[in-house]
């Protein structure tokens, strides 16, 4: 979940190139609706969300998801390092990416949250160029 279209698109392209299926939302409220109303949401294994977004921010989304899917890993990202540090002090086990981040850092954080040996992205077939 990212409110900036260019960044959200860039992240989607990186993840899809690595074989991950991606659902996108512009803010937390849209993400929550997508994760509760979509059949494809049952297969969601991780949420990557910005902390600061309009309508519903990343903290509010995480709180709502904690009630619905308490074991769903969440990675927070933000360009506001102080905000990341404040949340880290509250919950040191939370995963964070400080913007701007490198693609390698994004992928390593995702693999770490999913457990590199347990969860791997689906490999795309030659007949399915989008990986869906």
What is this structure's SSE topology?
Elements: H1 5-17, H2 28-37, E1 47-50, H3 58-68, E2 74-78, H4 81-90, E3 95-98, H5 103-114
Parallel strand pairs: 1-2, 2-3
Helix pairs in contact: 2-3
Task: Name its key features.
132 residues; mainly alpha; disordered C terminus
Can you walk me through this structure?
With 132 residues, the protein is mainly alpha-helical. 42% of the residues lie in helices and 10% in strands. It has five helices and three strands. The chain has helices at residues 5-17, 28-37, 58-68, 81-90, 103-114; strands spanning 47-50, 74-78, 95-98. A three-stranded parallel sheet has the order 1-2-3, sandwiched between helices. α2 (28-37) packs parallel to α3. The model is unreliable at 116-120 and 122-132 (pLDDT under 50).
Compact overview of the structure:
This protein is mainly α and 132 residues long. The protein contains 5 helices and 3 strands, in the order ααβαβαβα.
Q: Averaged pLDDT, please?
A: 79
Largest sheet: 3 strands, parallel
Total beta-strand segments? 3
From the N-terminal CA to the C-terminal CA, the straight-line distance is 19 Å
Please count the helical segments: 5
Give the strand order of the largest sheet, numbering strands 1, 2, ... along the chain.
Answer: 1-2-3
The low-confidence runs, each spanning 5 or more residues with pLDDT under 50, are 116-120, 122-132
Structural class: mainly alpha
Provide the gyration radius in Å.
14 Å
H/E series, N to C? Answer: HHEHEHEH
Shape: globular
Helix content range: 40-55%
How much strand? 5-15%
